[in-house]
Amino acid sequence: MIVRKTTPAESQRVNEVFAIAFEQPMENGPADPKNEHIHHWAAFEEETTRIMSALTVSNHMVHFDGHCCKLGGIGGVSTLPEYRRKGGIRGCFNKVLPYLYENGYDFSYLYPFSTGYYRKFGYESCVQKYHVTLDLALLNPPKMQGSYHLSETPHTMSDAICAIDRIWESRYNMMVMHSDNYYDRYSKANPAATQEFTYVYFDPQRQPKAYVTFRKADEPDGRNIICSNFYFLDKEGFAGLLNLLKSLSSDHRFVKFTLPAETAMQYLLPEWSMGAAQWNILPAGMVRVISVKQVLEKAKYLGSGVIHLGIQDAQIPENNAVFTVTFSDGQASSVVTSQNSPDVLMDISTFSALICGVCNFGDAAQWFNGLQVIHPDACFDRVFYHKKLMIVDSF
């Protein structure tokens, strides 16, 4: 088996493998030779040079503890049926992960078909979301004095949407930082033709506070509003969106959207009993740290201290070390590999989840399988603690 980056001339075959593996049209395939921000890796059968398996890496910048970090989004993971369980994808990851390290990536992220499978490559469950379903007939939001504006050519709301996104993104670890050209879709919006509607809510001072993008869907439980974007900067923005959606209640039964899985979010709703609201927690992907040293240098700490972290990584040898972190006033002043006795041993998947902020260290020590506490009095709770997490982009 040979594993390497594919060439632009092999893009069509990458898409064919994807189409065969997932029984989908080729136009849904991941390969685009004109997109310089995406590259593809494949495992080739040595005898025939036929592609057995392939995956795609897309480049993104994401928020992490107040820093801008480089992330490799993994997608298009596919294997032809006759080559499954022959190590093609494993071979790709064994090449891709060191490549990401050598090229300065901080993180990688993917949406798994199996958490157990990708945990073998150092990934661990990360973001969770609330999937919210509201009965519009029972919705009674507080009245707002602001106004709504539909984004449509030539009355585009792209600047207001961008302003909201910039603030919303900065609040959550793992949120992708969108470039300016991402907002071209709103400047060219044609809702009458596409039947996709984006509304921006402005407060009485004409400041953009929230926006929602939705389309109608005829589903088994009714004619519903399905939101692909639902972002707000404060409780006024949230209430503003609910007022807009309430105005559509005569033609629709439910509205459905996602929120960050923060308990306090539930208090935004004035009524959640009697079937007015349903909240379901959904997993939203797995994270992997690519460079332990880089991430520890960028992480935000609580107060000051010194800790010795023993990390075990089967794919990236440079991460197999004891990292001694000295931090002061919430920032790392020194991150070095050392011969010190580790305060804790943890595999790379556990470290990846904890440094991103999935939970407090006390909960991790009680429930996680991938760590061993050696010095219980170490300052773990100043290094690993719960942080706000969210992701909306797919890879």
Task: Indicate the low-confidence ranges by residue numbers.
Answer: none
Largest sheet, if any? 7 strands, mixed
Tell me the quaternary state. single chain
Number of helices: 10
Strand order of the largest sheet: 1-2-3-4-5-14-6
Order of helices and strands: EHEEEHEHEEEHHHEEEHEEEHEEEEHHE
**Spatial gap, N to C terminus:** 26 Å
Radius of gyration, CA atoms, in whole angstroms: 23 Å
Notes on the structure:
The chain is of the alpha+beta class and 395 residues long. It contains 10 helices and 19 strands. The strands form 3 sheets. The chain has a 7-stranded mixed sheet, sandwiched between helices. The protein has a 7-stranded mixed sheet with strand order 8-9-10-11-12-7-13, with helices on both faces. The chain has a 5-stranded mixed sheet with strand order 17-16-15-18-19. α2 (88-102) links the parallel β4 and β5 (107-110). The longest helix is centred in the first third of the chain and has 15 residues, at 88-102.
